[in-house]
Every structure is written in C-alpha cells, then in structure tokens.
Amino acid sequence: MDFIPYSTQSISEDDVAAVLAVLKGPFLTQGPTGLAFEAAFAERHGVAHAVSVSSATAGLHIACLALGVGPDSLVWTSPNSFLASANCALYCGARIDFVDIDPSTRNMSVEQLEAKLRQAEAAGRLPDLVIPVDFAGLPCDLVPMRRLADRYGFRILQDASHATGASYLGQPVGSRYSDATVFSFHAVKIVTTGEGGMVTTQDDALERRLRQYRSHGMVRESADLEAPADGPWTYEQQVLGYNYRLTDLQAALGLSQLGRMESLHAARTRLADRYDEHLADLPLSLPPRLADRQSSWHLYAIEVEPGQADRSSVFAALRAADIGVNVHYIPIHTQPYYRRLGFRPGDFPAAEAYYAKALSIPLFPAMTDAQQDRVISVLADALTGRAP
Ligand SMILES: *Cc1c(COP(=O)(O)O)cnc(C)c1O
For residue 113, what pLDDT is reported? Predict the structure, then answer.
C-alpha cells in the first residue's frame, strides 16, 4: 500500500524546465525572474506591490519591522496558527498576546478581538499590530477587523501563508483591508518555491521599507540617500536589515507554479467537495464554508467530536494504514517557550478545544480518487469502531 501524505508538492515538467533555464542563465540570485514573479503575483492578487522573501517567516519578520514594530510594541495574533505568526513579533523585541478563535471558522474571532480591544483601551495598552491568520486557506473576516483597526489605531498584517489565491468578498486575499499580507511558498503550501514567501501591500512607502529590510537595510537610489553620494557606486545602510532574498532559481519555480495555480486550486476544491459529500454522515465536523469567501483548501481539517470518537485513536488508525494525517495546530501559547513568557493552558479555550478535536486529512492536487476513497474508508472504520 502506498503512503498517502497529508500534503505534498505538485511539480510539472514545465516547472523543472523553468528552473533549469534559470540555472543555465546569468542570474542565480535575485534577478529578472524574481521581478517577473513579483509582478505576476501582484497582478494575480490585485495588489500594487509584491516583495519576494526567502520564507514567510522572513516576510512576517520584515513586515513587522516595516510596520514599525519594536521593543515598545504590542502585537496580537491567533493561537491557532504556526509558531511563526507569533515569533515574528518576538524577533522585534515586542510583546505578544493572542485573541481566541471563532470555533465556526477556526480563525481569530472578531467578537473576541472587539472585547479584548475594549478591555485594552480601558487598561491604556492597545495593540500596535494585529496578525490574523487565514487558517486552512479560509480568509479571515477583514471588513470588521479593518473597522476596529481604524477605530483603535492598530495596523493589520495578514498571515495568508495558507491562502495564496483565495478570495474574500470576491477579491483576492492580499489586495485590500490589511496593511500588508504574507504568503508562504513552503513545499506543502498552495504554490511552492521550496522555501520562500511574498509580502503584498498597496502602500508605496511600506514596499520600499520591505525591500530595504530584505537586503541588509541598504538603499542605492539617489533619492533615498541620507548624505550626498560619493559616486555612482554609493549604497547606504540606514536600518538593520537581513539577507532574506529569494533566489531566481526559486522564483522560476514560483512563477511556473503560479501559472498553474487555477488548476491546482480546482484540483483541491474538487477533492474538498468530494470529502464533504462522502464524510457527511460520519460523526465529524467538516470544514466551514462561507458564501462571502473562497478557501484555497490548503488543509482539509475535520473535528472528531469527543462524545463520538477519540481523536488520538482515529489518528493512530489512519497512520497505521499508511495515511499521513496531521494535527494543525497545537495552540502557540501552550508551547514551553510561550509558557515561560507567562501564558497558560486555559488562556484561549476555543483554540484549545479545537486542537483537542482537530485532524488534517490528506489533500493535495495529485491525490487520486482511489487514494481519497481509501482515506474515507479507513476514517469511517476508525470512527465507527470497525476493524480495518
Ligand atoms: C507555513 C506557515 C508559516 C511559515 O512559512 P515559512 O514559509 O515556512 O516560513 C507562517 N504562518 C503560517 C500560518 C504557516 O502555515
């Protein structure tokens, strides 16, 4: 029996040819293919600027810096996310806190956010930045968040690592409502460059700062210099930046993948529809579907209801049948590192309750119906207590 991973990359012959063509050319690091990838990504996402980075983690870090996050800042994110959504604030020396999720979307709850903002205002310590996360590829509810951001004076950095190409109110994620949006091109995500990421923004000044932080804090354009240029070779370091550049080899893969994104989405959506249909009668909660937004279906995350079955035994039964299930996510605040910052289990009960039930079952573009049928049948047996 073949092993079925929970996710895996989809690489075509065209993808391979695109990388080889760059490998044989003059630019291996940042060059014209990187610019072409940024332009194509910006166009597809309906946004003025796209800045490529070496990972989404790097993108979150420099987006925080470019948005002014520093040691005096307070940043809030969702506990139901990958570690990077919170770590980025700590890289900048900021304080981190969390806003609990809405169990029906598994994304940051707008009601909880509003309640926490009211308390924070009364206590005189409002957040400077909020990082909502598009869990599993389902866009978060940005219109009310934008209203709260304008009222309480914080910026929004959307972690759309799961949501490349997803849409909200008929418009691509990353185009509106957030100040900046970060996407991941890790191998398990919607579009891959091996490692890589993108930051989008409509703000020209923010774009310039992102490019500066991406490459050592340097500028070269004469209009950007603080002092008169010594000559045409002049560059200035004005802030402390990093080397977070994406190579042209990676950009070639990303550009080729982006060209196939609609078919990659269609394959994921078809499999998600098929899961919905075949799992409907099992004692499970299926992923949310909302009329005003379209998921990219990065994950198909189900909830095993505790009164009905035990998540750990279902997980074990699937793994025993060579099915690569996974759990997304262990709430960030319960990690040992975050406990040492003062967070405790019980702090964000909705994220913790979701975690206790969560199971991500395989979903990737090349998954066959036969593979999916095997997942469905092993899952059905595990839930109804039948031996495989
Ligand atoms: C994958 C992921 C990241 C980090 O992406 P990298 O490109 O691996 O750095 C950040 N946030 C979320 C929600 C992710 O899923």
Answer: 98
